[in-house]
Amino acid sequence: MTGIGAGLVLQLGLGALAVASALLAAPSLRSRAGGILCTLIAVTGFVTGVAALLGATGGLLIPIALPMDPLLLAPDRLGGLFMLIVSGVGILVSLYSMSSTRGPDASRTAWVAMPVFLVGMQLVPAATDSVSFLLAWEIMTLGSTVLLLADHASRATVASAGIWYSAMSQLSFFFILAGFAVLAAASGGTSFTNLQAIEPGSWAANVAFVLFLLGFGGKAELVPLHVWVPRVLPEAPSHVSAAMSGAMVKIGVYGGLLVCVRLLPDGPAWWGISIMLVGGASALYGILQASVSSDLKVLLAYSTTENMGLVFLGLGASMLLRGYDASAAADAALVAALLLAVSHAAFKSTLFLGAGAIIHATGERNLDRLGGLGARMPVTAAAFGIASLGAAAIPITSGFVAEWMLLQSLIHGGRLDGAVVSVAASVAMPLAVAVIALTAGLALLTFVKAYGIAFLARPRSAPAADAREVPPLMQLSLALGALSVLALGLLPGPIAALVANTVSSNPTAAVQSVGLGGVSLPGIGAVLDPIMLVVLSALVAIPVFVSIVVSARRHPHRTVDLPWGGGGSRARPRMQYTATSYAEPLVRVFDDVLKPSRDVQVTHVAESRYLVEKVRVEQHVSDVIETRLYRPVLNLFQRYGIVVRHVANGSIHRYLSYSFVALLIVLIVVSL
Amino acid sequence: MFETFYPQLIGLCTGALLLTSALMVWRHSLLASIRLLALQGAALAALVAVIGIAEGESELVLVSLLILSVKGVGLPWVLAHQSKASIKQIQESPRLNPTAALLAVTLLTILSYVVVSRVFGLGDSETGHAAPIGLAMVLIGFLLLISRRRARSQLIGFLLLDNGIATIAFLTSGGVPILLEFAVSLDVLLVVLILHVFAGRMRTKFGGTAVDQLRELHD
Questions:
Q1: What is the ipTM of this complex?
Q2: Are B111 and A668 within 8 A, CB to CB?
């Protein structure tokens, strides 16, 4: 057995051990033991992923009795990259959960589900045939569903989120299963090498593409299949939301790449265009909802939709460009999409873990009741701040590199040697640039809000005022996450070169590492060297900073008492901006898209209606897609569901009679 | 000598199987049903032994002993393992009156003859001619499952169904390998033990084992 096979076996063994320890360990030891074993699983996955990413071959063959291709787990370079992403997030989450879990989150069931979830996510990118892929996919979904439901007994919203999640996951699974079934029927085999033989232009490939887009799009939170996200990610325990958003959603992206890059490369132009459309719509819709949300975890959940939208936008652009032989730009767009996936894993898991730390310390996730946490929780604030910079795509963080590369490829991709490659590309690319520009602006606003309202200013509620820094292990996990965001942002060159190796036939023509870990796109002629950027800015900033300090020393500090308060001396926390008021202009601008419901209640003084005693304002922004698209369908089902309830009334005799009658009918029909 | 009696022995055994099945539908007392089940197990064992002797396979004789011990003695003993006084009182009030039930049994038997002769052909051998009995037993077992209210009476329907499957296996292919038969018998024994315990728990918890009262799911 080669290295990769041994790594996979070790992971499975550790997973079994973790399940056993969760079942047998005493409650006081359960979180510690589970956390350590889950960390070991993730570390093993990390090492295996690195080996696969560097080109090691080998795997784990599982013979089965059924008449189809045997199950083979052998990750290629792309699979290795995604194993790396998943296990990286897994390490952060496992370390964090060791000291964060308490109450129902640390129950026996939850600790059984955790290793199952982690191992399931690792096995999906390792699969090389559709059966093991679907099997691992279901293990992953099952583990995450159980983890989500950890706290269902005390909160009704968790149960509702569980139902939404199960329904949407099963819908995704159904589409993926159907997609594989179509391909397998057309090619006569279930292994990916068999499926690759299908002509991308054939009807089977077209049908399968649509099915896969629906299936993987649902897991990758693309609009309009994202409705589970704003319910599930906020209701799950924070380390689980971090794993879901940071890692599991990437498995959806991996599915998209598997179909578009590995199984059915060089598809027709409409494939690329439709992926770009879906991606662009998701990016805009996601960030718009995130920017007006005042619930921290809902904000992060919608921002995930935005980021995945951008990833798919890059993927679609690369497919479109490859169709017109602009391979350098196509490769750059694809590498940008992958880098965005990697960096999203880093910053979004850190952000969710940071949100978990806030909830741990205050019990609040409503931004309108937070504030002033920066001084009370410095480590959390620093980590959350750095991750916010990444999410807003500010230089020296990972998010910036990816979006820069994506913009470069989109701006230059429409032209090859000075000539326009096609009308479709020359229309699509500028539109995509506009979408990314708007998204980037709104993302900046969103994360300024998230960080500023939560960590700066004065506390807006008593729990926020009494907040304490979280335990050391949680701090360690947050710090590791923040460091990875910075490392990916400062040294993009080597990482981009490795990533390019996974998808490109000629990686050095697309992406090269230059200078101090900088990245260069030779086909486009663009260079980015973040460390040089930092050094240059330091050269400018240090003299300015020194001169400020010197001048401050020269003039002694004076305190100024306001002679006439002007209201400033009596500022109260209630007078500060809140998350809702900060986003209010935005809600007005995008009123037609967001359709917010406002309720203003004015109570007048009894004697005069010109004097107001109390004003109460409530604003609620609901998900338009859910209310306009899903509700009518659900209502329809509910109406007919009542009829069906008579058919399935819980009586076991009735169910048995159904099977008996069915058996009799079959017998009668075959004997006719 | 044996050759002349062989068809009649097969007919006798399968006839006993069918008769016990029909009687199980007719009788309402639990104790009577259990005794009929024991009788049926013995008839099945006899059938296997006859086939084994006719085909000269000593393995089948072993299997017949196994069947006799599990289906003729073991399972009925597990089911009747309770004070005789209380079990005598258990009377089933089925959802189908006896006349209708016997009529249904007749129809099901006819149907299984039609199905087997049309779909598979009855063949020339004596065992092939008797094969529809197995299918009829499966269908009658199913009928018991849906028409009985008590959990333990349903268990009898389930065992009848299992006997039917075994009968089909022995009549059409001369039986299954002994290892497989052993495993299946153990499985059935285990299932019955579990269901028996389950029925006991139901009775202590709800005061009865009428299954159609159990409609709501609880945490």
A1: 0.84
A2: yes
